[in-house]
Amino acid sequence: MKDFRIDQESRGAVQIIRLAGSLDMYSFPRLESHLNALFQQGRYSLVLDCRDLDYIGSAGLGALIGFAKQAREHNGDLRLLNVPERIYKIIELLGFTKVLKVHQTEDDAVASFQVK
Amino acid sequence: MGELSKGISVGCLNNRVYARVVGRGTFQNSQPLRQFAQEKIDQGQEEFIIDLGPCQGMDSTFLGVLAGIGLRLRQNGPTASIHIVNITPRNMDLLQTLGLDRLFLINADAPALPANADYHPLPDTDITQLKQPLDKEETADLMIEAHDNLVRVDPRNTPKFKELARFLREAVERRHPNGEQKK
Fold first, then answer.
1. Which positions in chain B have a beta carbon within 8 angstroms of at least one beta carbon in chain A?
2. What are the structural domains of chain B?
3. What ipTM did this prediction achieve?
4. pLDDT digit string (tens) for B8-65?
5. Most exposed among A22, A74, A79, B168, judged by the fewest C-beta atoms under 10 Å?
6. What CA–CA distances, in Å, run from A62 to A107, B60, B142, B175, B179?
7. Per the structure, how many domains does chain A have?
Protein backbone atom coordinates (compact mmCIF):
# COMPACT_ATOMS: atom_id res chain seq x y z
CA MET A 1 0.00 0.00 0.00
CA LYS A 2 1.49 3.34 -1.08
CA ASP A 3 1.79 6.15 1.44
CA PHE A 4 -0.72 8.91 1.05
CA ARG A 5 0.75 12.13 -0.35
CA ILE A 6 -0.60 15.62 -0.99
CA ASP A 7 1.06 18.12 -3.33
CA GLN A 8 -0.35 21.45 -4.32
CA GLU A 9 0.14 24.07 -6.96
CA SER A 10 -1.75 27.20 -7.93
CA ARG A 11 -3.14 28.06 -11.32
CA GLY A 12 -4.35 31.56 -10.84
CA ALA A 13 -7.00 31.48 -8.16
CA VAL A 14 -7.49 27.74 -8.56
CA GLN A 15 -5.61 25.38 -6.29
CA ILE A 16 -4.67 22.03 -7.82
CA ILE A 17 -4.28 19.47 -5.07
CA ARG A 18 -2.58 16.31 -6.26
CA LEU A 19 -3.34 13.20 -4.26
CA ALA A 20 -1.39 9.95 -4.34
CA GLY A 21 -1.78 6.64 -2.54
CA SER A 22 -4.75 5.56 -0.46
CA LEU A 23 -7.29 8.06 0.81
CA ASP A 24 -8.83 6.07 3.62
CA MET A 25 -10.00 6.78 7.15
CA TYR A 26 -6.40 6.67 8.26
CA SER A 27 -5.14 9.28 5.79
CA PHE A 28 -8.27 11.39 5.33
CA PRO A 29 -7.62 13.65 8.35
CA ARG A 30 -4.50 14.92 6.54
CA LEU A 31 -6.55 15.99 3.54
CA GLU A 32 -9.18 17.43 5.85
CA SER A 33 -6.56 19.60 7.57
CA HIS A 34 -5.16 20.66 4.22
CA LEU A 35 -8.57 21.71 2.88
CA ASN A 36 -9.50 23.49 6.10
CA ALA A 37 -6.24 25.43 5.93
CA LEU A 38 -7.03 26.51 2.36
CA PHE A 39 -10.50 27.65 3.41
CA GLN A 40 -8.97 29.67 6.23
CA GLN A 41 -6.79 31.39 3.63
CA GLY A 42 -9.93 32.22 1.65
CA ARG A 43 -9.14 29.75 -1.14
CA TYR A 44 -12.34 28.08 -2.22
CA SER A 45 -11.65 27.11 -5.85
CA LEU A 46 -10.16 23.66 -5.53
CA VAL A 47 -9.40 20.80 -7.89
CA LEU A 48 -8.45 17.40 -6.50
CA ASP A 49 -6.23 15.60 -8.99
CA CYS A 50 -6.85 11.89 -8.36
CA ARG A 51 -4.54 10.47 -11.05
CA ASP A 52 -2.25 8.73 -8.57
CA LEU A 53 -4.93 7.84 -6.07
CA ASP A 54 -5.32 4.09 -5.75
CA TYR A 55 -8.15 3.97 -3.24
CA ILE A 56 -10.79 6.22 -1.73
CA GLY A 57 -13.08 5.21 1.12
CA SER A 58 -16.79 5.87 1.34
CA ALA A 59 -16.62 8.17 4.35
CA GLY A 60 -13.88 10.22 2.68
CA LEU A 61 -16.06 10.74 -0.36
CA GLY A 62 -18.95 11.74 1.86
CA ALA A 63 -16.77 14.28 3.60
CA LEU A 64 -15.68 15.72 0.24
CA ILE A 65 -19.33 16.61 -0.39
CA GLY A 66 -19.25 18.68 2.78
CA PHE A 67 -16.13 20.50 1.59
CA ALA A 68 -17.70 21.10 -1.84
CA LYS A 69 -20.77 22.60 -0.15
CA GLN A 70 -18.62 24.89 2.00
CA ALA A 71 -16.65 25.99 -1.06
CA ARG A 72 -19.86 26.76 -2.99
CA GLU A 73 -21.11 28.91 -0.15
CA HIS A 74 -18.09 31.11 -0.89
CA ASN A 75 -18.54 31.11 -4.68
CA GLY A 76 -15.98 28.39 -5.15
CA ASP A 77 -16.20 24.63 -5.57
CA LEU A 78 -14.29 21.42 -5.07
CA ARG A 79 -13.95 19.46 -8.31
CA LEU A 80 -12.32 16.19 -9.23
CA LEU A 81 -9.78 15.60 -11.97
CA ASN A 82 -8.25 12.48 -13.55
CA VAL A 83 -10.35 10.06 -11.56
CA PRO A 84 -9.13 6.49 -12.23
CA GLU A 85 -11.82 4.22 -13.65
CA ARG A 86 -12.07 1.96 -10.61
CA ILE A 87 -12.58 4.98 -8.35
CA TYR A 88 -14.98 6.60 -10.81
CA LYS A 89 -17.13 3.44 -10.69
CA ILE A 90 -17.40 3.81 -6.91
CA ILE A 91 -18.22 7.51 -7.16
CA GLU A 92 -20.87 6.81 -9.76
CA LEU A 93 -22.35 3.84 -7.90
CA LEU A 94 -22.81 5.92 -4.78
CA GLY A 95 -24.32 8.77 -6.78
CA PHE A 96 -21.60 11.26 -5.92
CA THR A 97 -21.22 12.29 -9.57
CA LYS A 98 -24.47 14.20 -9.09
CA VAL A 99 -22.85 16.54 -6.61
CA LEU A 100 -19.14 16.43 -7.39
CA LYS A 101 -18.08 17.63 -10.82
CA VAL A 102 -15.51 15.42 -12.51
CA HIS A 103 -13.13 16.72 -15.20
CA GLN A 104 -10.90 14.87 -17.64
CA THR A 105 -8.22 17.51 -18.10
CA GLU A 106 -6.63 20.05 -15.86
CA ASP A 107 -7.30 22.85 -18.35
CA ASP A 108 -11.01 22.00 -18.36
CA ALA A 109 -11.12 21.88 -14.59
CA VAL A 110 -9.38 25.24 -14.23
CA ALA A 111 -11.42 26.85 -17.01
CA SER A 112 -14.66 25.63 -15.42
CA PHE A 113 -14.13 28.04 -12.56
CA GLN A 114 -14.16 30.97 -14.92
CA VAL A 115 -17.46 29.91 -16.52
CA LYS A 116 -20.27 30.22 -14.02
CA MET B 1 -6.70 -22.29 6.19
CA GLY B 2 -3.39 -22.62 4.45
CA GLU B 3 -3.83 -20.48 1.41
CA LEU B 4 -4.72 -16.86 1.87
CA SER B 5 -7.10 -16.18 -0.98
CA LYS B 6 -8.00 -12.50 -1.26
CA GLY B 7 -11.34 -11.55 0.15
CA ILE B 8 -13.21 -12.91 3.14
CA SER B 9 -13.03 -16.55 4.15
CA VAL B 10 -15.25 -18.04 6.83
CA GLY B 11 -15.57 -21.26 8.73
CA CYS B 12 -17.27 -22.78 11.75
CA LEU B 13 -15.99 -25.17 14.41
CA ASN B 14 -17.18 -26.04 17.90
CA ASN B 15 -19.84 -23.35 18.06
CA ARG B 16 -17.41 -20.68 16.97
CA VAL B 17 -17.59 -18.73 13.75
CA TYR B 18 -14.31 -17.73 12.14
CA ALA B 19 -13.69 -15.10 9.49
CA ARG B 20 -10.47 -13.90 7.94
CA VAL B 21 -10.14 -10.75 5.86
CA VAL B 22 -7.36 -10.69 3.27
CA GLY B 23 -6.86 -7.40 1.43
CA ARG B 24 -9.31 -4.62 2.13
CA GLY B 25 -12.65 -4.72 3.90
CA THR B 26 -14.88 -2.13 2.26
CA PHE B 27 -18.49 -1.41 1.40
CA GLN B 28 -17.82 -3.52 -1.71
CA ASN B 29 -17.45 -6.77 0.22
CA SER B 30 -19.38 -6.02 3.42
CA GLN B 31 -22.74 -7.38 2.33
CA PRO B 32 -21.69 -11.05 2.06
CA LEU B 33 -20.11 -10.92 5.53
CA ARG B 34 -23.19 -9.23 6.97
CA GLN B 35 -25.49 -11.86 5.50
CA PHE B 36 -23.29 -14.74 6.61
CA ALA B 37 -23.05 -13.37 10.15
CA GLN B 38 -26.80 -12.82 10.34
CA GLU B 39 -27.45 -16.41 9.31
CA LYS B 40 -25.04 -17.71 11.92
CA ILE B 41 -26.48 -15.52 14.67
CA ASP B 42 -29.99 -16.65 13.69
CA GLN B 43 -28.74 -20.23 14.03
CA GLY B 44 -27.69 -19.45 17.60
CA GLN B 45 -23.95 -18.92 17.17
CA GLU B 46 -22.62 -16.62 19.88
CA GLU B 47 -18.89 -16.39 19.37
CA PHE B 48 -17.22 -14.83 16.37
CA ILE B 49 -13.47 -14.70 15.79
CA ILE B 50 -12.38 -12.20 13.14
CA ASP B 51 -8.78 -12.40 11.95
CA LEU B 52 -7.63 -9.02 10.63
CA GLY B 53 -3.96 -9.98 10.36
CA PRO B 54 -3.89 -9.98 6.54
CA CYS B 55 -6.36 -7.07 6.31
CA GLN B 56 -4.74 -4.07 4.59
CA GLY B 57 -7.40 -1.63 5.67
CA MET B 58 -11.11 -1.13 6.30
CA ASP B 59 -13.53 1.58 5.36
CA SER B 60 -16.22 2.90 7.66
CA THR B 61 -18.93 0.75 6.06
CA PHE B 62 -17.01 -2.45 6.73
CA LEU B 63 -16.31 -1.32 10.28
CA GLY B 64 -19.99 -0.47 10.68
CA VAL B 65 -20.94 -3.97 9.54
CA LEU B 66 -18.55 -5.45 12.10
CA ALA B 67 -20.13 -3.12 14.67
CA GLY B 68 -23.57 -4.41 13.64
CA ILE B 69 -22.45 -7.99 14.26
CA GLY B 70 -21.11 -6.95 17.66
CA LEU B 71 -24.32 -5.10 18.55
CA ARG B 72 -26.49 -8.06 17.58
CA LEU B 73 -24.32 -10.43 19.58
CA ARG B 74 -24.45 -8.13 22.58
CA GLN B 75 -28.25 -8.34 22.51
CA ASN B 76 -27.90 -12.09 22.88
CA GLY B 77 -26.37 -11.83 26.32
CA PRO B 78 -23.02 -11.63 28.07
CA THR B 79 -21.65 -14.86 26.65
CA ALA B 80 -21.97 -13.68 23.05
CA SER B 81 -18.85 -11.97 21.79
CA ILE B 82 -16.80 -10.90 18.84
CA HIS B 83 -13.05 -11.31 19.08
CA ILE B 84 -10.69 -9.41 16.80
CA VAL B 85 -7.37 -11.19 16.45
CA ASN B 86 -4.02 -10.43 14.84
CA ILE B 87 -4.88 -6.79 14.35
CA THR B 88 -2.24 -4.45 12.95
CA PRO B 89 -1.50 -1.14 14.72
CA ARG B 90 -3.01 0.79 11.80
CA ASN B 91 -6.30 -1.12 11.94
CA MET B 92 -6.29 -0.91 15.73
CA ASP B 93 -6.04 2.83 15.39
CA LEU B 94 -9.15 2.80 13.18
CA LEU B 95 -11.12 0.75 15.71
CA GLN B 96 -10.09 3.06 18.52
CA THR B 97 -10.88 6.19 16.52
CA LEU B 98 -14.45 4.95 16.10
CA GLY B 99 -14.80 3.62 19.65
CA LEU B 100 -15.16 0.04 18.44
CA ASP B 101 -12.45 -1.20 20.77
CA ARG B 102 -15.12 -1.02 23.49
CA LEU B 103 -17.46 -3.33 21.61
CA PHE B 104 -14.98 -6.00 20.56
CA LEU B 105 -12.59 -8.19 22.50
CA ILE B 106 -9.27 -7.45 20.87
CA ASN B 107 -6.56 -10.08 20.93
CA ALA B 108 -7.98 -11.01 24.30
CA ASP B 109 -7.32 -14.70 24.84
CA ALA B 110 -9.03 -15.44 21.58
CA PRO B 111 -8.90 -19.04 20.46
CA ALA B 112 -6.39 -19.55 17.66
CA LEU B 113 -7.83 -19.96 14.19
CA PRO B 114 -8.07 -23.72 13.82
CA ALA B 115 -6.77 -25.23 10.61
CA ASN B 116 -9.54 -27.82 10.58
CA ALA B 117 -12.45 -25.41 10.50
CA ASP B 118 -14.37 -25.82 7.30
CA TYR B 119 -13.19 -22.60 5.68
CA HIS B 120 -14.55 -21.37 2.43
CA PRO B 121 -14.32 -18.03 0.68
CA LEU B 122 -17.42 -15.87 0.77
CA PRO B 123 -18.31 -15.33 -2.89
CA ASP B 124 -17.26 -12.13 -4.60
CA THR B 125 -15.42 -10.58 -1.66
CA ASP B 126 -12.12 -9.90 -3.40
CA ILE B 127 -12.66 -6.24 -4.20
CA THR B 128 -9.86 -6.22 -6.74
CA GLN B 129 -11.89 -8.45 -9.02
CA LEU B 130 -15.57 -8.24 -8.24
CA LYS B 131 -17.63 -10.32 -10.64
CA GLN B 132 -21.08 -8.92 -9.98
CA PRO B 133 -21.81 -5.20 -10.10
CA LEU B 134 -23.08 -3.86 -6.80
CA ASP B 135 -26.71 -2.87 -6.55
CA LYS B 136 -27.03 0.87 -5.94
CA GLU B 137 -29.96 0.68 -3.55
CA GLU B 138 -28.67 -2.29 -1.60
CA THR B 139 -25.32 -0.55 -1.24
CA ALA B 140 -26.92 2.69 -0.04
CA ASP B 141 -29.07 0.78 2.49
CA LEU B 142 -26.05 -1.16 3.71
CA MET B 143 -24.01 2.00 4.13
CA ILE B 144 -26.78 3.79 6.01
CA GLU B 145 -27.20 0.85 8.37
CA ALA B 146 -23.44 0.49 8.87
CA HIS B 147 -22.94 4.16 9.73
CA ASP B 148 -25.98 4.09 12.04
CA ASN B 149 -24.26 1.22 13.84
CA LEU B 150 -21.11 3.29 14.26
CA VAL B 151 -23.13 6.12 15.78
CA ARG B 152 -24.95 3.67 18.08
CA VAL B 153 -21.63 2.37 19.36
CA ASP B 154 -20.22 5.86 19.86
CA PRO B 155 -22.34 9.00 19.34
CA ARG B 156 -19.11 10.95 18.81
CA ASN B 157 -19.04 9.38 15.36
CA THR B 158 -22.06 11.45 14.28
CA PRO B 159 -20.16 14.45 12.87
CA LYS B 160 -17.64 12.22 11.09
CA PHE B 161 -20.30 10.68 8.89
CA LYS B 162 -23.03 13.30 8.82
CA GLU B 163 -22.40 14.37 5.21
CA LEU B 164 -22.31 10.80 3.94
CA ALA B 165 -25.40 9.81 5.94
CA ARG B 166 -27.31 12.88 4.79
CA PHE B 167 -26.38 12.31 1.17
CA LEU B 168 -27.35 8.62 1.24
CA ARG B 169 -30.65 9.29 3.01
CA GLU B 170 -31.53 12.03 0.54
CA ALA B 171 -30.72 9.67 -2.35
CA VAL B 172 -32.99 6.96 -0.87
CA GLU B 173 -35.69 9.57 -0.26
CA ARG B 174 -35.50 10.71 -3.87
CA ARG B 175 -35.93 7.14 -5.07
CA HIS B 176 -38.75 6.36 -2.65
CA PRO B 177 -40.43 9.67 -1.87
CA ASN B 178 -43.31 8.06 0.02
CA GLY B 179 -41.09 5.78 2.04
CA GLU B 180 -41.98 2.66 0.06
CA GLN B 181 -39.36 -0.06 0.09
CA LYS B 182 -37.58 -1.58 -2.85
CA LYS B 183 -39.35 -4.72 -4.04
1. 24, 26-28, 56-61, 90, 93-94, 97, 133-134, 136, 139-140, 143, 147, 160-165, 167-168, 171
2. 7-175 (3.30.750.24)
3. 0.84
4. 999 998 889 999 999 999 999 999 999 999 999 999 999 999 999 999 999 999 999 9
5. A74
6. 26, 11, 15, 19, 23
7. 1
